[in-house]
Specification:
The complex is a heterodimer of chains A (231) and B (208). With 231 residues, chain A is mainly α. Chain A has one domain (2-229): MetI-like fold (Orthogonal Bundle). Helices cover 79% and strands 0% of the residues of chain A. In chain A, helix 2 packs across helix 8 (153-169), helix 4 (74-85) packs parallel to helix 9 (172-178) and helix 10 (188-198) packs antiparallel against helix 11 (201-228). Chain B is built from six helices and nine strands. The longest helix of chain B has 14 residues, at 110-123. Helix content of chain B is 31%, strand content 25%. By secondary structure, chain B is of the alpha/beta class. Classes of the chains: A mainly alpha (231), B alpha/beta (208).
Chain lengths: 231, 208
């Protein structure tokens, strides 16, 4: 118990003094997770909507693949990207391995099926009557898409939150492709793993508190946004 | 004068059975045509086909003398129509936004939209609930909203599928007055001819 209290006090000191390493790790975490989730959301949400709207041969298989990839183990993503971007890999000449950019790509790949799947589920919840109302009003394809976006906005927010939550908590893929390099590719989750293995519990605890606080603040902001869009 | 709507040899089958067969009729501008038929005879399906929400098994539709079924310009044809279904759908937003949505789609200016919505919501007794979420309305209120949303567009053709089925006598009278007062051509379905007081002509649809 004393150990935990000491760790918490030490963590509080690190946070209050704006420890420079802590700040850079936090900033990188925000960059990697937000960019990965936002990029995934920008493509996955329209894709999920289109998938919900269109009927085509093989749709069941596509939906099954997405559902399967929603539970995709991040270490597999990390491994595949590592093989692809390592020096001998097909994309080795890009020099992206062990950079924040490839960490964003990993987060994108992990968040994409989650956001698509939750959006598709929101589309399935969209009443047929409402969709027909939107069509019967004489909307163009673009207007139809934007009205559907508006109508399933709560589902889309949930989809984005699910994708972002996964990105924030991700360790496996980013540690493989990022390498957990100090002041370069070290993010909150990978740092927690490192500091814990080193026995640096104060540092690990501080990182954990920051990670929780970040998730809380972002979720709270989105909840407020949801409340605003109730109208 | 060219009829606004021409229906030629229209048939619709479900599970190999004819819901209606070789339907032929025209609707002139300004006319209020009642389609009377018992339940299950295809009234709603006919309205859906005219609104291009459903394709007929065979036959053709001409709107303003032009074939209406071309998939590329369906949205343009629909912009000249407005439809109210028996169980009206509402968007998950305010009453005001629900009424104004068709006008926004048609690119009307904000001040014009505001004026039109205020007028129509007042005449339908919805002005006190403009800021309320439409999903919280009662069935009757939703029906009034759907009528207001359609009538505010002043469409060439107003399609009404048993539009007063959820309304009490007072609101039925209100709706009928509004339908009579608009300049649009109207096709209105009703289970009995007697129930449809707004029609200038009645068309009986018998199953098969």
């Amino acid at each position: 118990m004393t150990g935990l209290t000491d760790s918490l006090i030490g963590a509080g000191k690190l946070i209050l003094t704006f420890d420079s390493e802590l700040v850079s790790i936090t900033v990188l975490t925000l960059y990697v997770s937000l960019f990965g989730a936002i990029a995934a959301g920008l493509i996955a949400a329209p894709f999920g909507i289109l998938l919900g709207l269109k009927n085509f041969r093989g749709k069941g298989i596509v939906v099954n693949i997405i559902n399967t990839f929603m539970g995709l183990p991040p270490v597999i993503v990390g491994l595949l990207l590592y093989v692809l971007f390592s020096r001998q890999g097909a994309l080795g000449n890009t020099g992206l391995l062990f950079t924040p950019q490839i960490m964003v790509l990993a987060q994108f790949i992990i968040a994409f099926p989650i956001i698509t799947g939750v959006t598709l589920s929101a589309m399935q919840g969209l009443e047929k009557d409402v969709h027909e109302l939107i069509v019967s009003l004489g909307s163009t394809k673009t207007q139809r898409m934007s009205l559907i976006f508006f109508e399933i906005r709560y589902g889309l927010i949930t989809a984005f939150m699910a994708g972002l939550g996964r990105a924030f908590s991700e360790v496996g893929a980013v540690i493989i492709v990022g390498g957990n390099i100090r002041n370069h590719t070290r993010v909150l989750t990978t740092s927690i793993v490192l500091e814990t293995s080193r026995g640096e519990f104060e540092q690990a605890m501080a990182l954990g508190i920051i990670l929780l606080a970040l998730v809380f603040v972002i979720n709270y902001g989105i909840t407020i946004l949801q409340g605003e869009s109730q109208r | 004068m060219k009829p606004l709507l021409t229906v030629k040899n229209l048939s619709k089958t479900f599970d190999g059975k004819y819901l209606f067969k070789n339907l032929n009729f025209t609707v002139s501008r300004g006319e209020r045509l009642a389609v009377s038929a018992p339940n299950g005879a295809g009234k709603t399906t006919l309205i859906r086909i005219i609104n291009l929400l459903e394709t007929p098994t065979s036959g053709e539709l001409y709107f303003n003398g032009k074939p209406a079924g071309d998939a590329r310009n369906q949205w343009m044809v629909r912009r000249n129509m407005a439809v109210v279904f028996q169980r009206p759908a509402v968007l998950n937003t305010t009453v005001y936004n629900n009424i104004s949505i068709g006008l926004k789609i048609r690119g009307e200016k904000k001040d014009v939209i505001d004026k039109k919505v205020k007028n129509i919501s007042k005449s339908f007794g919805l002005n006190q609930m403009e800021d309320k979420n439409a999903q919280a309305l009662s069935g009757g209120e939703k029906q009034l909203l759907a009528l207001a949303r359609a009538i505010v567009l002043a469409p060439d053709l107003l399609l009404l599928d048993e539009p007063t089925s959820n309304l009490d006598p007072e609101n039925t009278a209100l709706a009928e007055k509004a339908i009579k007062n608009i300049a649009s051509t109207v096709i209105i379905t009703s289970p009995s001819a007697a129930a449809c007081k707004v029609a200038t002509r009645t068309f009986y649809l018998s199953g098969g």
